[in-house]
Amino acid sequence: MIRRVRLVTGLVLFTYVSTHLTNHALGLVSLAAMNAGREWFLWLWRNPVGTIALYGSLLVHFGLGLWSLYLRRNLRMPALEALQLVFGLCILPLLTLHAVVTRLGFEWFGFDDTYTPLLLNYWKLHIDFGVRQALLLVLVWTHGCIGLHLWLRLKPDYARVAPWLAVLAVLVPVLALLGFADGGREVLRLAEQPGWIQQAIAAAHSPNAAERVALERTAEAILLVFAASVMLTLLARLLRQAYEHRRSAVRIRYPDGRTVVAPLGYSVLETSRSAGIPHASVCGGRGRCSTCRVRIVRGFKSLPPASAEELVVLKRVGAAPDVRLACQLRPSHDLSVTPLLPATATARDGFAQPDYLVGKEQEICVLFADLRGFTRLSERKMPYDVVFFLNRYFETMSRAIEQAGGIPNQFTGDGVMALFGVKSGPERGCSDAVSAAKSMLRGLAAMSSELAGELGEPLRMGIGIHAGPTIVGRMGHGEAMYLTAVGDTVHVASRLQDLTKLYQCQMIISEAAAQRAGIDVSGFPRHEVTVRNRTEPVAIRAIEDLESLPTMPEHVAR
């Protein structure tokens, strides 16, 4: 509930700032346009409902920000969160005098706070105030945009609209500052007319000296309350930490063998951060993203039960029973944990993922392909020529695989591995693999023709295809995480590709894969081969020319 209230109040404040900056941007039209737009702005925010929503949101949002600061066991946090916190603490000191003069000056003394007297003050009478307002504009907008980003990045569709939102995030403040500047220049031109400044001040009923003193003292009192609130929050944190360190402690052991002693009441995530151990947490420990989740290796039975909110998040990502969110788990006994995601995990890693990404045993079709004579070719080429050639080769192969419905999986040297049927099933996967093999050879022939002057001889390739059970999932570490498959089927497919050299053919396909693809290979040489670490032989068909393969039945053809 606290998070929801903080979000709602933040959205109200961001809406206010957005409409205010849009009003500033009208300065690009004229000063009169700014003042005309201001009428609509005041209609929205200076009625009783708008006033309560605005100032109530400001007070609640600030109070919840202090509460969040108090709850932190340490101030180690991602750079973006730190920037948001610092900017948030800078806003009120810069905003207070402006807010008091405009709103309370209007309520108490009838000050008509149009853009005309304000721009006159900022661009002519007190230029330092104008600089402060420009800085305030940037800080407020940036603080709000960071908050929106931290909230929206946990939404699955955010990546698709993020570029457009980034354009708006830059465009709005730039237009507002340009409008602010153009309005200021127009006021400076008007101020050159004799007597105009005095007329503008009188027309706006600007506060006199005594009234200004009253407004400034009010602003100073608000700033004192603000400073006292921040100091009391920090003092309360120190006192709580001193108390917690006198209580019982728990020991948390990590996979590298490191054991961290933490006061009772610390979450596993807070323990990691206090010890300087990298630990993923995209949402900042709010129990929303699931990227901080850990597997309990030892001490599971002594853990406090998960809250309803934590269970919702764990269910969303299909977590096992021994998995908990590190930001929500506050152990009362010693335990051992293993973080399940690298510290560099992104918001995407917290989304609910298909089984084949999380890890699943399923039957698929695996294709291996390898260039013939590439070692000899590369020995005669300069390094940059080899890199250029391989990039063209991999691009051609990847396009053929993807257009046939497969997933390019690994590029090792001049070898290619691809997965088929991960989403569509083994039957469709096998037919797609055969289609991809034909397209790959046609693409290779086109490359040979294009680079004939440099190659000396046509490019040749060997392809192996096999289908069967594998374990599919995202594997690796850090940026090297990718979807792949492991198991006997992968080993056999790789071995079949090697056998194309022995049988002098373009492709070897297992009879199991050919049968599932729905193609008749009875007219091609049949062999039974043994594969290392496999007791039963594999029946295969050697295809000397892929173009001689019969057309696949219509129900499996793409």
Mind explaining what this structure looks like?
The protein has 18 helices and 13 strands. The strands form 2 sheets. Strands 6, 7, 8, 9, 10, 11, 12 and 13 form an 8-stranded mixed β-sheet that branches. A 5-stranded mixed β-sheet has the order 2-1-5-3-4. Helix 4 runs antiparallel to helix 9 (209-246). It is α+β, with helices and mostly antiparallel strands and 558 residues long. The radius of gyration is 34 Å and the shape is elongated. It starts with a helix and ends in a 15-residue tail after the last strand.
Task: Give a topology summary.
Layout: H1 2-25, H2 31-45, H3 48-71, H4 79-109, H5 115-125, H6 127-152, H7 158-191, H8 196-203, H9 209-246, E1 249-253, E2 259-263, H10 268-274, E3 294-298, H11 308-316, E4 323-324, E5 335-339, H12 355-358, E6 360-372, H13 374-379, H14 383-403, E7 407-412, E8 415-420, H15 426-450, H16 452-455, E9 460-475, E10 482-486, H17 488-503, E11 507-510, H18 511-517, E12 526-529, E13 538-543
Parallel strand pairs: 1-5, 9-11
Antiparallel strand pairs: 1-2, 3-4, 3-5, 6-8, 6-9, 7-8, 9-10, 11-13, 12-13
